[in-house]
Amino acid sequence: MPFYDLRCPKCEKEYNISASIAEKTEKRIPCPDCGSLELVTVFKGSPAYIKSRESGACPNQHLCGSGCCHGGRT
Question: Of 57, 61, 12, which Cα lies nearest the Cα of 39?
């Protein structure tokens, strides 16, 4: 069964829940805290890698430090 990122508008909590496609489309997944069946899908984007304008420089060097492991890959 797939996992879904869902949010309950009633109690404002987010969950990652394993459920069948039918359970999700037919709104049969209850909120683990309040029991509401009105859970909505949370869309989360994947991180994007943007090439630095400096040739070969890692745009995450402030996070990697001097031992950067990205090597300027795009």
Answer: 12
Mean pLDDT across the chain, nearest whole number?
Answer: 81
pTM over 0.85? The answer is: no
Question: Given a cut of 60, is residue 32 above it in pLDDT?
Answer: yes
CB 58 within 8 A of CB 68: yes
Pull the structure tokens for residue 68.
Answer: 């950067």
pLDDT confidence bin for 6, thresholds 50/70/90:
very high
Rounded-to-integer distance, Cα 66 and Cα 27, Å = 50
- Cα(72)–Cα(54) distance, integer angstroms: 9
Read off the amino acid at residue 64: C
Bridge partners (DSSP) listed for residue 18: 3
Query: Alpha-carbon distance 69 to 64, whole Å?
Result: 7
